């Protein structure tokens, strides 16, 4: 145990560490890709002498990523990216392992923000962000802390949208790698990870059957595709709402009904928002929903389901089960909101499966090394994960599964490279 990490950290209870260690040990045993990256980092020490600040959903898989970066020589500080997804026992275990932690489960909003700022006050050289929170604080509130930051990596669709807006204004001060846009992230994490973990969170929270119910999936990006696919697998009748005509046609051809939200609102038993935008379920929709409709969000911020407009239509609000708030409307109907409208898969569950986050966090770790190696030449912009890193993670994954793939012969390569051969 590092006395420095114990003295500097702000957590709930160091005595919770034993249970946290068990959780971290479990995911480590199921993250073979990240284990290979760890061996690489232990040998190369790419972050030796550097400080790294991480803001992610602070549970066991994230903790293991922090330990892998620490194994690469970094002095690691970590904070949460959602007040309801932080696990106090995992925080305690990380502190015992020498990571500085500024995080607690469900702090007051002001304290939650202060804990993020404390992580940035360590003056990191590199950052890993989730939703653009660290970047926003650095640029909008604490610009004096920008001077040490070489660059970083962003985890989410929401964060990349914020980064690109900052870049468009010419205000971004360091390079950020768009990890969310990598193949080995969105094809697997967003689709299979979100699809499974959302329904894990909903099912364990509500203990209600999905089969035969109508599920409205709001947004048909990669996350929406996964949520809809798993809902169908559970026996639900699935409706998709979209603003993008191409994605709407895709949802239709995938076998789902497509309609505007004001129509879907009348039919849904379960609603899952996955847009990255705000106010996709609002007052006009509450006005026509069924008695007993269940609302949940799997986008980054708790703004997709408009809570003030739901509150304004309610005569009473009470917690009926953990992570379920019952809003009784003035006409007597009841609408249920899961996890306060925050990420249902993390606030009411354990997040994506370890084998899925194995690939995403391997990309995070390798992307952090990439931006550190080339930060002087990349410039202050948002950059994609190099295809070589994407492919490296996929190769590691195949190896862990005991699978191989074919390779092109020299003749085949020549054929593909030539316009004259036929």
TrEMBL record:
Species classification: Bacteria, Bacillati, Bacillota, Bacilli, Bacillales
Keywords, sorted A to Z: Cytoplasm, Hydrolase, NAD, One-carbon metabolism
Binding site for NAD(+): 156-158, 190, 219-226, 242, 277, 298-300, 345, 352
InterPro entries assigned: Adenosylhomocyst_ase-like_sf, Adenosylhomocysteinase-like, Ado_hCys_hydrolase_NAD-bd, NAD(P)-bd_dom_sf, S-Ado-L-homoCys_hydrolase_CS
This protein's name: Adenosylhomocysteinase
Functional description taken from the UniProt entry: May play a key role in the regulation of the intracellular concentration of adenosylhomocysteine.
EC number: 3.13.2.1
UniProt record, GO biological process: L-homocysteine biosynthetic process; one-carbon metabolic process; S-adenosylmethionine cycle
Cited SUPFAM superfamilies: Formate/glycerate dehydrogenase catalytic domain-like, NAD(P)-binding Rossmann-fold domains
Residues that hold substrate according to the record: 130, 155, 185, 189
Stored NCBIfam families: ahcY, PRK05476.2-3
Catalytic activity: S-adenosyl-L-homocysteine + H2O = L-homocysteine + adenosine
Record bears the keyword Heme: no
One function term, GO molecular function aspect: adenosylhomocysteinase activity
Organism of derivation: Paenibacillus algicola
Cofactor dependence: NAD(+)
HAMAP family listed in its UniProt record: AdoHcyase
Pathway the protein takes part in: Amino-acid biosynthesis; L-homocysteine biosynthesis; L-homocysteine from S-adenosyl-L-homocysteine: step 1/1
Domain S-adenosyl-L-homocysteine hydrolase NAD binding: residue ranges: 190-351
